[in-house]
Design brief:
The N and C termini lie far apart (61 Å). Helices cover 79% and strands 0% of the residues. α2 runs parallel beside α4. With 110 residues, it is an all-alpha fold.
Length: 110
């Protein structure tokens, strides 16, 4: 017995497997943003984290599309995922420093 309709199986192609690391990296960025905003604001950290992630995605998508147009023939379709993955990891790294700085500041206040 098959529980998934054919239209879902069409989208579950092997090409979607290359997006899994990028999706996980974006989720890690979201969690880091949520942790940082929960240290900064009293209420609304989840809303700020969602809004910031949407704003960052909207601002960085044209940059990634331009890179895709320039390097489409040299690195292929999967090559555009790597700059987005590296930007996500870089933002997680920077958010780690912001979180630790905020934690040190909170610890010295008390």
């Amino acid at each position: 017995m098959l529980l998934a309709p054919d239209s879902v199986l069409v989208f579950a192609d092997a090409r979607w497997e290359i997006y899994i690391p990028l999706i996980l990296a974006q989720y890690a960025v979201f969690l880091h943003l949520l942790a940082y905003y929960s240290l900064v604001v009293r209420w609304g950290a989840l809303a700020f984290a969602i809004g910031t992630l949407i704003l960052l995605e909207a601002c960085l998508s044209p940059f990634l599309q331009i890179m895709y147009l320039f390097f489409h023939y040299t690195i292929g379709e999967t090559g555009i995922i790597m700059p987005a993955f590296y930007l996500s990891l870089l933002s997680c790294f920077l958010l780690q420093f912001l979180i630790t700085g905020r934690l040190h500041r909170i610890a010295t206040e008390e």
